[in-house]
Known about the structure:
The chain is α/β, with parallel strands linked by helices and 171 residues long. Helices cover 40% and strands 13% of the residues. It has 6 helices and 4 strands; from the N terminus they run ααβαβαβαβα. FE2/S2 (inorganic) cluster binds next to helix 5.
Amino acid sequence: xxxxxxxxxxxxxxxxxxxxxxxxxxxxxxxxxxxxxxxxxxxxxxxxxxxxxxxxxxxxxxxxxxxxxxxxxxxxxxxxxxxxxxxxxxxxxxxxxxxxxxxxxxxxxxxxxxxxxxxxxxxxxxxxxxxxxxxxxxxxxxxxxxxxxxxxxxxxxxxxxxxxxxxxxxx
Length: 171
Ligand code: FES
């Protein structure tokens, strides 16, 4: 079962997180690559969707680190760069469906910001597929699980993030 953390600041969550352990158990068992994925989930829809997926025992990779944010609009693009720096292989941002944001327009900002970030990453030579934005409502537990499974497969195919990882951040 994936670990769902509940603390106030997403920056603090990301900073205290040691991503090195993600995927290690599986990697040792099967000697295969298990991607390290960070998922930023908005409190009002996607996080509840993740909760529902857990309650329904929907199967999705346990090595996905979920960080709860008040709104997907709270996700600063620097959080994503920092996650990559700390060794994440993929980052997914999940928010309410357009028009359903608890703060009315937060997810519209997310959509624009992430489009810019993804094109900047592309410019830097990082595969666009490593960052994804998805809309998941509180009632879409099964959809949450299937998105996570599909994203994990995509990242598995892309392989390790060697481009942006800063080895000084390994702990
Ligand atoms: S509250 Fe969910 S995206 Fe804004």
